[in-house]
Amino acid sequence: MSGPSLRRRRRRPPRDPEATMSLIAHLTELRNRVAKALLALALGTVAGFLWYDHGLLTFLSEPYCSVPPELRYQGAEDCQLVVLDVFGGVLLRLKIGLIAGAVLSSPFWLYQLWAFITPGLKRNEKRYAVTFVAASTSLFALGAVLAYVTLYKGLELLLSLAGDEVAFQLTAADYLGFVISLLVAFGLSFELPLVAVALNLVGVLSHAALARSRRWIFFLTIVFAAFVTPTQDPFTMLAMALPMVVLFELAIQVTRIVDRRRARREAVESFHDVPDGEASPLDARPSSLDATPTRPEDLVPGPPAERSRR
């Protein structure tokens, strides 16, 4: 007797979260993740394009409007930016919309990045996805906010260095490009300690390597801040370098905890991997108790003189 009710559906084998993936599977996974990230970026760009006229341009222009009027051209009380060509306004709006879209959609494409990395992690390490996305977004926002606050004093300092005989009439492309570069540079720089933690989670970078290179990391961080900051003034450089040093030190301590937990977990797994009926591996390292007497007189207890009389 056969019928649809008696037919058994073939069940798919359960997915092993720690199984290895083939090259084709990796490429397919990469294509899907990139497509989703680009879709999120496109939607964020549309939102940034619409946000341009509803406070975004005012927000970016505020540091320039806060400088003393005598630093602007003809001591103007207003702080209008200049556009020098016909298509300059359109290109500027597209550029700002794209960058704002990348920032707004960062939680989504960062999650796609983490989801692509997770097949190489252990099951208990995959739960850090939400933590990774939240930490990366928060660090980028922290860096951008610090750059924006620094820009108020930094911009006034830079404009005043030209002297009292010089006044500035900034173009929209130059000024907004400078502001966006500073915000992005600070935001991405604050992500570097998180990258070190992510490399430690996947087993590429160890805590011992980071601890040995601590001084070099701090020195290169200061050099990196000197080259990356668009203003090139010591105030802005220190505003970037000092928080990065603190974040790198926190990253080193996090990797220490991760490596300690990983070593403890691997020790437990190696103990449970021993089959029944098979002896556990012995520790072959030398010990002070391994020193056995090699001469017959050493086997006789007592002082050396007494042993010689016997």
Q: TL;DR?
A:
The protein is mainly alpha-helical. The chain has ten helices and no strands. 64% of the residues lie in helices and 0% in strands.
Helix content: 55-70%
The structural domain count equals: 1
Label the structural class: mainly alpha
Order of helices and strands: HHHHHHHHHH
**What is the makeup of the main sheet?**
none
Report Rg. Answer: 31 Å
Distance between the termini: 97 Å
Average pLDDT taken over every residue:
76
Number of strands: 0
Low-confidence stretches: none
How large is the count of helical segments?
10
Described by the principal axes of the CA atoms, the overall outline is flat
Strand content: under 5%
What does this structure look like?
Its main location: membrane. InterPro entries: Sec-indep_translocase_CS, TatC. Belongs to the TatC family. It is found in: Cell membrane; Membrane. One of its GO terms (biological process) is protein transport by the Tat complex. The termini are far apart. The protein is flat, with a radius of gyration of 31 Å. It has one domain (23-267). Helix content is 64%, strand content 0%. It has ten helices and no strands. It has helices at 23-65, 88-104, 106-117, 129-160, 172-189, 192-201, 207-212, 214-228, 234-272, 304-309. It is an all-alpha fold and 310 residues long.
Descriptive tags:
mainly alpha, translocation, transmembrane helix, membrane, 10 helices, 310 residues, protein transport, transport
